[in-house]
C-alpha cells in the first residue's frame, strides 16, 4: 500500500474512507474549493477520533491535490493518506495543467507512482517526497468521449508498468459497462484492479450486479449534500449486492468535494459521518463481518500493490 508517507503493509490500513477529498478545486465549481489545510486537519482529526485509520484522496492532476500538505497532515493526525495521480474530466481540470500534460499522460502517471508527485502538476518539475498510490480517471454521462478514452488509455499503460489500481469517476453513476469494456476488455487491465465510483448515483441494481460480476470493486458515496437523493437507497443497494455474493467488492467513501460539506468547519456530514452514523447502520443491516469487509478488508485489497514489480 503506497501512502504519502511511504509504503505500508495493507493490513495496517485500518478503517478506511475509500473515496474522499482533503484538497480539491474545479473550474466547474467556483467558490466551493477545498484549499484550507487547517480545515482538512480538523476533518482528519474528527475522522480519527471516530476510529478512522486511512483516507484515499481521489483528487488527481490539475485539481489542487496538495501533496506537500498531505504529507504534513498525515504526520500530524496519524491518519494514513493515499494520494492519486491521473486525470479528471476536462471540465474539472485546471486548463493550464491540461495544456502542460497533454501528450505526456502515461509518462506523468508512471513518474508520480514511482518517483513522486510533481510540484505544480508540471511533468518537468522535481518530484515531491510523496508518491501516488492510485490512478484516478473519469467517464462521461452514459458515454466515453475522447478525453476520457485518452486518460483511461494512459491509466491502463501506467497500470501495466506499475500494478497500480485505477479508480473511476462515473458521471451520475453511468457508463460503468463501457468503462469495463475499455479498461478490461480492450486494454487488458484485470477487473480486480479497477474501482468503479459513484454507482449509487444511478440506482440501476441490474447494472450494478452485472459490473460486479466482472470482479471489479464498487465504491459508493456516503451521504452528501450533492447526492442526497441517493442516500436512502444506499443500504438497500449494499444489502442486495452482498446477498448476490459481492460483499468482498464493496467500498464506501464520503466524497467530500466542497468546504460546506465538511463536518468540522462546514455544514457536514463530512468524513466522520461514515463511522459515527453510516457504519452502525450498515452493521445493523448486514452484520459485523460484512461491515468489516466494507471498511477494512476490501479497501486493503483494492488499493494494495506489489510495488517491487
UniProtKB/TrEMBL annotation:
InterPro entries reported for this sequence: Metal_Hydrolase, Phosphotriesterase
What does the cofactor section's free text say about binding? Answer: Binds 2 divalent metal cations per subunit.
Which cofactors does the annotated protein need, by name?
a divalent metal cation
Alphabetical UniProt keywords: Hydrolase, Metal-binding
Q: Which GO terms describe its molecular function?
A: hydrolase activity; zinc ion binding
**Which residues are listed for Zn(2+) 1 binding in this entry?**
19, 21, 136, 255
Q: Which residues take part in binding Zn(2+) 2?
A: 136, 169, 198
The protein's name: Phosphotriesterase
